[in-house]
From TrEMBL:
CDD domains noted in UniProt: Sec24-like (cd01479)
Biological source species: Salvia divinorum (Maria pastora)
Family matches, as InterPro entries: ADF-H/Gelsolin-like_dom_sf, Beta-sandwich_Sec23_24, Gelsolin-like_dom, Gelsolin-like_dom_sf, Sec23/24_helical_dom, Sec23/24_helical_dom_sf, Sec23/24_trunk_dom, SEC23_SEC24_subfamily
Keywords (A to Z) from UniProt: Protein transport, Transport
Domain Sec23/Sec24 trunk positions: 488-728
Biased composition (Low complexity): 17-37, 141-168
Record-annotated Sec23/Sec24 beta-sandwich domain positions: 733-817
Sec23/Sec24 helical domain: residues covered: 828-926
Record's protein name: Protein transport protein Sec24C
Length: 1078
């Protein structure tokens, strides 16, 4: 790992390619690389620095964004490319050598198979109530033990037990290679819960006068006449500990630092607000008698923006003054608690470094509102929803302290004996430490004798600062046998490749084989890693990879209706035993099938056969598919044509094409999940493949869909390789169970994401990785206590790729409030909008599109109406008033309506892909997906790119597109570069190696040429890839052809044939609010 002093904190190592192949990569930018290494080496607290013992291994891997695979022809790597030597240890390219030639295969390392179903314990729950986490084959393997314990409130209850997740299993250094921190983009300043900041009012006069923004504190919004406040967002104000990117770690004294900052997180003390930090209003303020439902305390008005609207609906609004993102390039240092109070997190899309001072890092868990309403009525009045987004294995910033691993030995972690909640900083010890009160269910428990410790004068345990579980919002517990129904499973990777006529001819089969061939060196090292491979067309072909044979033997399974697996023990082999055979096979498969004339594909049967081979262990099944499955179990029909006619007939039933065609695949998916098999689908197609049906498998098993349409053998292999590589090298875990518990009064209503659910309280995840997020909707089942805090605890029980069983526990405690104004002040825009987007994605397949679209707009209207009615002090009905924290909500909502998933003109498969992509997507990627980032490239040479590699984003409006400009627009999936008609030829030559826009190729591969402009462009693209943990599909676009239309379709602020412009949408929203007010 690199030494401290690397690049600034914000600069995470791009995803470089660990293996030597990367030397061939073309896009690598030298500059980038430096950062990479640096990132890896980013300053990190010395190992011993913390008072606590071990930490979870940090993720040392490289991120996806990096350079394209070396396989494809590309420019040689610049000579000064960063040396690969700096690669993190685990990334070392050396792969485990196979056993000595001739040696017989050792018995499979996992000889011990999971006990027969009946034999296993059934609950995962806690040790207390040993619920056998049935990892094994049987369903319900992880019964949540909680049930037993907490009958009444399932949601809090038993989940605790079994859920052990380990620290990020990933290699020893899974800590954090750079997280996908989207930079500045979303970082608009927003008001913190704390002290009310001066409201920013955007007011435009109703008349013809352009609206102007003012920042008035409390003043009547109407007063806004001067343009004074305008572009400077009033909110940006309170510096949250902004920190200039320095090479040094923000926590100068990482270890010891904790003591300082943690003024006892738990005690009840006064709140020493630290300078520069925004402290929430003293508790007292929240308890003051409400002036009125929701009036801000002290008569101060809430920060907001108001803009005058003319009643005629004509827009007098100056587009330059309507609410926009104000990206901040600075890295924010965020302490999760300050002065014994929860500190509202920075925007999810900003670049920040978290210091865990008692509450969970917002990377692992964040709430739509940072104060919890006392009653369901109050929440309902606000129009907002209360949900958590949990991403338990999220990548941390390299400068953040790694998560501590706590080992309680044979007794396992201390838990509440009633709700099974895990010990955490908010548990209150009493009676000289002999007993403790659970912050989740309120139960009073005996402190285990060997865990006893006296209390200090402040009421806290004297050892609180030395015990991570008592002073950190997130810790990882070593799971005991009670959390296992069998030995932790090995890391099994099974590759299933479509070799029917279509993919062999389009090059998709060759691309898949090449990608696998390159990434196998990155598989987790060690005896616990096993692999298998099969190909299929209308039959299934397994391969015996055992070393004893001269070459891999093909074993054909012809029956695709009643599938079986030959020689189970020979098709999944210890990786070190079969590495050479596997490579040989991958090199040969494209040739073996190059003249294949079988057009049929038995995908369902192939998945089933692979499942049978993996049934005893579980593992990851990586499927490369190109055509609609046409034969054998689970075959599908071309519904799309029939859907087209339905659409033209009147869209009523159109959404049914977005539902699975039947239940066959769902049933299969449930079985896969039960046996801990996670499926990822890589679709490299040229046609309709019915994603709506196929995607049921990855969604149910904790996997995901990758989509390459139309597949291009020229430009897509690089992305396929990078996607696959990130898929297997990112931090991840297996056979997981997740449960969220809440304090009394709040309960989990529903979980959403990619998982399997057999019982209401727990989520089963055959696999989970750092990119997967689960939305947890909450509701009240009782009134909360005024002046109290409400806790949320997410526990994930999982097995690391190295076979350790762990429980990752994140606890977040938020203040309760009975004031509506506090809810608006503490609203988390990014989180709220992410939930709105996910809900829309869930609704699309089951409701008419118009209804889904109206619903999204109505959510926006209801929230703004509530604010206008109960919190705004402005009296003029001619003003649209937006709470500062949510001022971007209308723009985001408008952008959502224009997403492919919510448009009727999109291809059915494209819409299904969008829905599937959104399902497990983390907040920092949802925002750019809906509201992409656009930057100007033509003047790169004139700008000195200070710290930020990526220029400041510009609004998504064609007004900002000049004919002699070049613009890059990216949403985390696609990256479009639009070239204006009058761009100077020398710029085209320098950037793209072409002399006029007529030469723009359909399939574009970014090259790096020997000039500064090209280098800057490559740096930008690689930085974006690093931030998004995605390689992105690149496309050059020009006016007048489909590529140009695609580019302009992302300019969501423009008026379209069926859609409002941004200003029109604001007026629309305003009218609706006026109607409700009347
Ligand atoms: Zn409890």
């Amino acid at each position: 790992m690199a030494a401290p002093g690397g690049p600034r904190p914000g600069n995470f190592p791009p995803n470089y390619n660990p293996n030597s192949l990367s030397n061939n990569m073309q896009n690598l930018q030298i500059n980038q690389q430096q950062p990479n290494n640096a990132g890896v080496s980013a300053p990190r607290p010395p190992p011993n620095a913390t008072p606590f013992g071990q930490r979870a291994p940090a993720f040392a891997g490289s991120r996806p964004g990096p350079p394209p695979p070396g396989v494809f022809p590309r420019a040689p790597v610049p000579p000064n490319a960063p040396a690969q030597t700096t690669l993190p240890p685990n990334m070392v390219s050396s792969r485990p050598a196979g056993p000595p030639p001739g040696s017989q295969l050792p018995p499979p390392p996992f000889a011990s198979r999971p006990p027969p179903p009946g034999a296993m314990p059934s609950s995962i729950g806690g040790p207390v109530t040993p619920s056998p986490p049935a990892l094994g084959p049987r369903p319900g393997s992880y019964p949540s033990s909680p049930q037993t314990s907490a009958p009444s409130t399932p949601s809090h209850g038993s989940g605790s037990g079994p859920v052990s997740n380990g620290p990020p299993t990933f290699a020893p250094r899974m800590t954090q290679s750079g997280p996908p921190f989207p930079p500045a983009m979303g970082s608009m300043p927003r008001p913190l819960v704390g002290p009310p900041q001066p409201p920013a009012m955007l007011s435009s006069r109703p008349s013809s006068q352009p609206m102007q923004m003012h920042s008035s504190f409390g003043g009547p919004p109407t007063a806004v006449s001067s343009a004074s406040g305008q572009s400077a967002p009033p909110f940006s104000g309170p510096p949250q500990n902004m920190m200039p990117p320095l090479g040094s770690s923000p926590f100068s004294a990482p270890n010891t630092g904790m003591h300082q900052s943690i003024n006892s997180p738990y005690g009840m003390q006064t709140w020493p607000a630290q300078p520069q930090q925004v402290a929430p209003p003293p508790p007292g303020s929240m308890q003051q008698p409400p002036l009125m439902f929701g009036m801000p305390p002290g008569g101060q008005s809430l920060p907001n923006q108001s803009m005058a609207m003319s009643h005629s609906g004509q827009s007098n609004i100056d587009p330059n003054q309507i609410p926009r993102l104000a990206p901040s390039a600075s890295v924010i240092v965020h302490e999760t608690r300050q002065g014994n109070q929860a500190n509202p997190p920075p925007p999810a899309t900003s670049d920040y470094i978290v210091k865990d001072t008692g509450n969970s890092s917002p990377r692992y868990m964040r709430c739509t509102i940072n104060q919890v309403p006392l009653t369901a009525d109050l929440l309902s009045t606000s129009g907002m929803q209360m949900s958590l987004l949990v991403q338990p294995l999220a990548l941390a910033h390299p400068s953040e302290e790694p998560i501590h691993v706590v080992d309680f030995g044979e007794s396992g972690p201390v838990r509440c004996s009633r709700c099974k909640g895990y010990i955490n900083p908010f548990v209150k010890f009493i009676d000289q430490g002999r007993r403790f009160i659970c912050n989740l269910c309120g139960f009073m428990d005996e402190t285990p004798r060997d865990y006893h410790c006296n209390l200090g004068p402040d009421g806290r345990r004297r050892d609180a600062d030395e015990r991570p579980e008592l002073c950190r919002g997130t810790v990882e517990f070593v799971a005991t046998k009670d959390y296992m129904v069998r030995d932790p499973m090995p890391a099994v990777f099974f590759f299933l490749i479509d070799v029917s006529m279509n993919p062999t001819q389009t090059g998709a089969t060759a691309a898949a084989c090449s990608a696998i061939r390159q990434v196998i060196a990155d598989l987790p090292k060690g005896p616990r890693t096993m692999v298998g491979i099969a190909t299929f067309d209308s039959t299934i072909h397994f391969y015996n990879l055992k070393r004893s044979s001269q070459q891999p033997l093909m074993l054909i399974v012809p029956d695709v209706q009643d599938v079986y697996t030959p020689l189970e023990s020979d098709v999944i082999v210890q990786f070190s035993e079969c590495c050479e055979h596997l490579e040989m096979l991958l090199d040969n498969i494209p040739t073996m099938f190059e003249s294949n004339r079988i057009a049929d594909s038995a995908l369902g049967a192939a998945v089933k056969a692979a499942f049978l081979a993996m049934k005893n262990t579980g593992g990851k099944l990586l499927v490369f598919q190109s055509v609609l499955p046409s034969t054998g179990i689970g075959s599908l029909s071309v519904r799309e044509s029939e859907g087209r006619s339905n659409i033209s007939a009147g869209e009523k039933e159109a959404h049914k094409l977005l539902q699975p065609s039947d239940k066959t695949l769902k049933t299969m998916a449930m079985e896969l999940a039960e046996y801990q098999v996670c499926v990822d689908l890589f679709i490299t197609s040229q046609m309709y493949v019915d994603i709506a049906s196929l995607s049921v498998i990855p969604r149910t098993t904790g996997g995901q869909v990758y989509y390459y349409y139309p597949f291009s053998a020229r430009s897509d292999p690089a992305k396929l390789y990078n996607d696959l590589r990130w898929n297997i090298t990112r931090p991840q875990g297996f056979e997981a169970v997740l449960r969220v518990r809440c304090s009394q009064g709040i309960q989990v209503q529903e979980y959403s994401g990619n998982f399997c659910k057999r019982i209401p309280t727990d989520v089963d995840l055959p696999a989970i990785d750092c990119d997967k997020t689960i939305m947890v909707s909450l509701n009240h089942d009782d009134k909360l206590q005024e002046g109290s805090e409400c806790s949320f605890q997410c526990a994930l029980l999982y097995t690391t790729v190295y076979g350790q069983r762990r429980i990752r526990v994140s606890t977040l405690s938020l203040p309760c409030t009975n004031m509506l104004s506090n809810l608006f002040r503490s609203a988390d825009l990014d989180t709220q909008f992410t939930c709105i987007t996910k809900q829309a994605a869930i609704e699309i397949p089951s409701a008419p599109l118009a209804q889904v679209r109206d619903q999204a707009t109505n959510v926006c209207i209801n929230i703004l109406y509530s604010y206008r009615k109960f919190c705004a002090t402005v009296s003029s009905s001619g003003q649209l008033i937006l709470p500062e924290a949510l001022k971007m909500l209308p723009l985001y909502t408008l952008a959502l309506l224009k997403c492919i998933g919510l448009r009727s003109d999109g291809r059915i498969d494209d819409r299904s892909v969008w829905i599937n992509y959104v399902s497990p997507l983390p907040t920092p990627l949802v925002i750019p997906l809906v509201y992409p980032r656009m930057i100007a490239l033509q003047d790169l040479n004139e700008k000195e790119l200070d710290d930020s590699i990526i220029p400041v984003p510009i609004p998504l409006s064609s007004e900002h597109i000049a004919i002699d400009g070049i613009y890059l627009l990216e949403n985390g999936v696609d990256c479009l570069i639009y070239v204006g008609e009058d761009v100077q030829p020398n710029i085209l030559q320098q950037m793209f190696g072409i002399s006029s826009i007529e030469e723009i190729p359909n399939q574009f591969i970014l090259q790096q040429y020997d000039n500064p402009l090209s280098k800057k462009l490559n740096d930008i693209v690689n930085e974006i890839r690093r931030q998004r943990c995605s390689y992105l599909r690149l496309r050059l676009c020009k006016k007048g052809d489909p590529s140009g239309m695609m580019f302009f379709s992302y300019l969501v602020e423009d008026k379209t044939a069926n859609g409002f412009s941004y200003v029109e949408y604001l007026i629309h929203i305003h009218r609706q609010i006026q109607n409700k007010m009347a």
